[in-house]
Write a structure and sequence with these properties.
globular; five-stranded mixed barrel; 10 strands; about 30% helix; Rossmann fold; 8 helices
Length: about 240
């Protein structure tokens, strides 16, 4: 156990699906897992372990932002011997052709943060997700006829809709990086996985964009992302 996770080591599966929202973790457990049990509720960051199509899986929230993701991902990998984490979350779309609830698969995450420098004395600002895991997700999406956008994403320290000028941020991004979406956790997840020689992937659904007038409600963010959730779960089998 840790100060952030009261689960016993045997309570956590070697594959973890990781939404940001604790209520989304609860929703996934109640709607997709069988024989599940609540194994952590410290700080109301719920974790449930159960079975999905015969595969033992843990669903655990990460909270919002890189510091929160960094803590939970590190502990899961290092202390609980988790092998794979797939983040399932929401994002802001950066492409005009992306529509509300379209699915994004991040191939790498760029961030201006000093997360890697502070954690590991590494002046790193871009880190890749696991190519093998991404390939599996991509193939399952094709089999199911699910359209996904694959590409680099931006990982931010603040909610991009609150930026005074998002275009100035985009201008600072190196020219060889063309982010297709933005969120707030993937860089920390990918970097911790790389540091500890583990696997990580990030699936996201578009919930806002400067090209889309509608913005997903809190309830839609919690329950309207089923296609993405099912794709992540099926990729664990």
């Amino acid at each position: 156990m840790t100060p952030h996770n009261e689960a016993k080591k045997e309570d956590i599966a070697d594959v973890v699906i990781m939404p940001g929202d604790p209520l989304r973790a609860k929703y996934i457990a109640e709607n997709y897992l069988t024989d599940y049990k609540l194994v952590n509720q410290v700080r109301n960051v719920y974790a449930y372990t159960g079975n999905y199509k015969g595969k033992r899986i843990t669903v655990m929230a990460s909270g919002m932002g890189m510091p929160s993701m960094g803590i939970y991902a590190y502990e899961l990998y290092k202390i609980y011997d988790v092998k794979t984490i797939i983040r399932v979350g929401s994002c802001g779309g950066y492409l005009e052709e992306e529509k509300l609830f379209d699915i994004i698969l991040s191939t790498n995450a760029y961030s201006e943060t000093n997360f890697a420098y502070t954690l590991n004395n590494d002046n790193c600002h871009i880190v890749e997700s696991d190519k093998e895991l991404n390939g599996k997700i991509s193939n399952i999406a094709k089999e199911k006829g699910i359209k996904i956008f694959e590409g680099p994403t931006a990982c931010l320290d603040c909610f991009d809709l609150y930026m005074t000028d998002v275009n100035k941020f985009l201008e600072r991004i190196p020219e060889n990086i063309k982010p297709i979406a933005a969120e707030m956790e993937a860089f920390a997840l990918f970097y911790v996985a790389k540091m500890l020689n583990k696997k990580a992937a990030c699936l996201m659904s578009v919930v806002d964009s400067k090209y889309i007038k509608d913005v997903a409600t809190a309830e839609e963010r919690e329950k309207g992302l089923n296609k993405m959730i099912e794709l992540a779960l099926d990729s664990c089998i």
